[in-house]
């Protein structure tokens, strides 16, 4: 085959690039240089990176090439250029949390996930923009520019893994690490048209990742395809004794799961969550997704789940109290160092009582039990990922996340189930549409199988934003 151009290299999938490197047809160095050149050329338009670690990436790429040439293959991410949401502590590299409070912070050790990625041979290109401390809103008074949506830079990319969604969509890295407390992997995945998975709570270590909410925080990847997410999760998943929520689970070949047939798979459609409120484009996208999954042999049936507002309010109360507990001292002592929106959201937690917090925790348990009962006899849940198109860049409301529309992603943070965002077309305004597939706890394999089957049957992975 002819040598791929730089543009062709940056739009390969992780699976394709890994196969080409294993066969010696491309090098990690060429791949890495193509991404570094593209970051240099276009990232000023979307500000997805806070820090680019070019020299470190070049050294890691040369090491990967040397190892691969000698027959040492560390796995599906060996030589693959990826990037990290800037709440992942990275040895010797500025880790800001997109906040003035950490503007000069350089950790001495890697987060456990970063250690695993490096051990798997991944090439880390740099650190990506986020909402301040992963809190879910951008304001102009923060020390770094806000990441922008590569499909239309006047609009938000979703958050809080904003840079992760934008960078993957704009072909500025092959995969990115995000975190999901109330939808922060799935929101940017949906609005930027990538795939992204919130794994089961406890499957991926959070050690060395800035916390937002102890009982909801989940770490996971975003990538261009479902299969690429599966390959990243293979490297990331596994027990970590330093994370109190970490679960001991058997190793799963997630990559193989993406090639499984979904004939006979039973999927519960949560239509009551979105009967009114979706844009016409999103409603059409959902109906079409149901048709495609049925064409692949899946059985899709409407099932009634608890009210979407119950999950939303329960999640918001727990997250707000826990975020306040984490940031309380700095909010009291140096409130001016936070962005306005972050400060107001963290302060809200001071006005909720212990009784209200405990009531929300008990209510969460009820929602988990009721969701499990509704799923009885089904493998997956299907729901929209978003109500419609992303918002424009305007001053966000500090407490809109309480009183606006209920979050479509929050149910699976409350239950802790794995949930994957899959692009299902484009609206009349050119923005991506997306749905979620959620599985039983620790059954990411079924989620990947259905998501990959949908992607194979549709043309959406061929369309990229132009910058």
Automatic annotation (TrEMBL):
GO molecular function: catalytic activity
Superkingdom field: Bacteria
Stored InterPro entries: Amidase, Amidase_CS, Amidase_dom, AS_sf
Pfam families: Amidase
Domain Amidase: 31-447
Gene3D superfamilies referenced in this protein's UniProt entry, alphabetically: Amidase signature (AS) domain (3.90.1300.10)
Task performed by this protein: Hydrolyzes indole-3-acetamide (IAM) into indole-3-acetic acid (IAA).
Protein known as: Indoleacetamide hydrolase
Originating species: Reyranella soli
């Amino acid at each position: 085959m002819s040598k791929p151009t730089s543009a062709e290299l940056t739009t390969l999938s992780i699976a394709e690039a890994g196969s080409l490197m294993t066969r010696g047809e491309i090098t990690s160095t060429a791949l890495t240089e193509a991404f570094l050149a593209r970051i240099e050329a276009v990232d000023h338009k979307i500000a997805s990176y806070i820090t680019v670690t070019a020299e470190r990436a070049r050294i890691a790429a040369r090491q990967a090439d040397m190892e691969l040439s000698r027959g040492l293959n560390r796995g599906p991410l060996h030589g693959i250029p990826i990037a990290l949401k800037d709440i992942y502590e990275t040895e010797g590299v500025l880790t800001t949390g997109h906040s003035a409070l950490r503007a000069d912070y350089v950790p001495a050790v890697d987060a456990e996930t970063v250690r695993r990625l490096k051990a798997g041979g991944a090439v880390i290109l740099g650190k990506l923009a986020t909402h301040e401390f992963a809190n879910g809103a951008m304001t102009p008074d923060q020390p770094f520019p806000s990441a922008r949506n590569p499909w239309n830079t006047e609009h938000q990319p979703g958050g809080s893994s904003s840079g992760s969604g934008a960078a993957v969509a704009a072909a500025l890295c092959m995969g990115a690490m995000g975190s999901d407390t109330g939808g922060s992997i799935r929101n940017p995945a949906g609005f930027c048209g990538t795939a992204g998975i919130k794994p089961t709570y406890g499957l991926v270590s959070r050690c060395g990742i800035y916390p937002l909410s102890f009982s909801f925080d989940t770490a996971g990847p975003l990538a261009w395809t479902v299969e690429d997410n599966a390959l990243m999760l293979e490297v990331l998943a596994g027990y970590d004794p330093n994370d109190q929520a970490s679960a001991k689970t058997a190793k799963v070949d997630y990559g193989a799961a993406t090639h499984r047939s979904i004939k006979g798979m039973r999927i519960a459609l949560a239509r009551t969550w979105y009967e009114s409120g979706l844009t016409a484009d999103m409603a059409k996208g959902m109906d079409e997704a149901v048709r495609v999954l049925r064409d692949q042999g899946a059985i899709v049936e409407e099932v009634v789940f608890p009210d979407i507002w119950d999950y939303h309010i329960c999640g918001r109360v727990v997250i707000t109290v826990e975020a306040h507990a984490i940031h309380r001292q700095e909010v009291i002592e140096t409130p001016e160092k936070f962005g306005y929106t972050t400060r107001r959201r963290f302060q809200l937690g001071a006005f909720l009582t212990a009784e209200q917090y405990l009531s929300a925790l008990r209510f969460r348990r009820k929602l988990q039990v009721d969701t499990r009962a509704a799923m009885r006899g089904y493998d997956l849940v299907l729901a929209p990922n978003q109500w419609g198109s992303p918002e424009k860049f305007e001053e966000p409301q500090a407490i809109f996340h309480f009183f606006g529309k209920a979050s479509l992603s929050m149910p699976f943070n409350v239950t802790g189930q794995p949930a994957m965002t899959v692009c299902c077309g484009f609206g009349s305004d050119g923005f991506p549409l997306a749905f979620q597939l959620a599985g039983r706890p620790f059954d990411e394999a079924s989620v990947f199988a259905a998501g990959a089957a949908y992607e194979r049957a549709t043309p959406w992975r061929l369309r990229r934003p132009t910058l």
